[in-house]
Amino acid sequence: MEEDRAQGGRGLWGFPKGGGARFALGYAALFLPFAVVTPYLQLLLKSRGFNKEQIGLIQGTMEVLAVLGAPLWGYLSDRLHRPRTVLLLVAAGAIPSFLLFGVTDNVVAAVGVAVLFGLFFKPLIPLTDGLTFHYLHARGGDYGPVRVGGSLAFLVTVGLMELLGVVGPRAAETILVAFAIAAALHVISILALPCPAAVSAHAAGDKPKPDLRRFLTRAFVLFTLAAFLGRMAMMAYYHFFTLFVQEQLHFEFPGYLWMIGPLSEIPVIYFSGRIMRRIGIRSLFALGLAGIVVRLLGFAWATSIWHVVPLQFLHALTFGAYHTASVTYVSGLVPAHMKSSAQTLFSALTIGLGGICGGVVGGYLAEAYGFTVLYAAFGGIAALALVLLLAFVPRPDRPAGT
Fold first, then answer.
1. Within the chain, what is the greatest distance between any pair of CA atoms?
2. What is the dihedral sign for C-alpha 13, 269, 235, 173?
3. What pLDDT score does 79 carry?
4. Could you tell me if residue 192 is inside a domain?
5. Which DSSP string corresponds to 183-225?
6. Which residues pair with 10 in a beta bridge?
7. Nearest residue to 184 via CA among 21, 27, 25, 29
8. For position 397, what pLDDT does the model report?
9. Residue 160 has pLDDT above 70, yes or no
């Protein structure tokens, strides 16, 4: 492995030359479709005639096959030792499944489309992270600087969407076409990603199987539970923020508020490796959970758009710190040949199951009691996650970046 790390010199990202640029572009392309889905799927569903409770149900059930399907995609990736091929297949499948939302106005049919779309769309980030950590394990480098490519792409794409005007009678068509273009660019970008040296070596010789008992350790179980609660809480933001600022705060351009998030997260993600080496992986994750508590409780008592604007900068913690610390912690618990399995299972239990619970419960609270109750209740869930983390989750044995 030391020979692998030494070959070819280092690029700007600490990767072997060329690898960092390709992964940075890969993450940029990955987050093009996410920049369409995350802020605007709720608007697409609203344009199809669904109310807030139905929107919560549809977006929550989009996670069902993220829970069931993502670990299977990850296991298949590790079992075949073909992470790039599996990622390409999943990315291609996301395009036609999303476009079905454009011809669906029945809630039962929309739930079915959401399940299908979740099967292909939700594993994209953990599969990409698994491929990246394969590469890091074999060749060295830092996750944060290349992941910044995704934040920049998200920021630019939302800005373009707002300039195009995602309001009015043609909003649905704009969202559908934008997703198709963004997702097609992502599929093309996957072909440029390098195959990890560790995977190539396994392909030529021994092919170890993933040992699923690795996921029954105290560290994995308790950390995943804390991350699940944190992710469930953040569904109040991801699923309902656009509707919140439009309906309660009467601000008609929510995309500009969404842009603050990726802009603020960039420094934390870029320097996340250095931060974790200084304060520890668990401590950075704790800061992420603390940010969720403050942000959601702030939304609960916001009476003006100017109360929301400073809270959006907490995305540096609620995503930047939360995401980089969590994927690094989980990656450090498993060997090289289980990186994709670990990331997809963790994603299924946190993003998937957390998304289901957050979407369904959040939709009910928003429809029955309003946004203030929604954000106050989910802020309490995040506080519970923080207590669990600090009281019971062990510090990782491995340094950041393993």
1. 62
2. negative
3. 84
4. yes
5. HHHHHHHHTTSPPPHHHHHHHHS--PPP-GGGGGSHHHHHHHH
6. 16
7. 29
8. 61
9. yes
Q: How many residues does the chain have?
A: 402
What does the block give as tokens for 125?
Answer: 């980030």
Asked, for residue 398, whether it belongs to a domain, the answer is: no
Q: What is the pLDDT of residue 159?
A: 85
SS3 171: helix
Cβ-Cβ contacts under 8 Å for 1 (sequence gap 6 or more): 137, 138
| Residue 142 domain boundaries | 11-201+209-392
- Residue 340 pLDDT > 50: yes
Q: Distance between alpha carbon 99 and the CA centroid of its chain, in Å?
A: 21
Contact (Cβ atoms closer than 8 angstroms) between residue 350 and residue 295: no
Assess contact for 113 and 97: CB atoms under 8 A: yes
With respect to residue 397, please indicate whether it lies within any of the assigned structural domains. Answer: no
User: Does residue 401 fall inside a structural domain?
Assistant: no
* Residue 122: CATH number of its domain: 1.20.1250.20
DSSP string over 265-329: HHHHHHTHHHHHHHH-HHHHHHHHHHHHHHHHHHHHT--SHHHHHHHHTTHIIIIIIHHHHHHHH
CA distance 254 to 258: 6
pLDDT digits over 61-75, tens only?
777 767 778 888 988
Number of domains the chain is built from: 1
Query: How does pLDDT run across 350-371, given as a tens digit for each residue?
Result: 988 898 899 889 989 998 999 9
Choose among 176, 163, 234: nearest CA to 36: 176
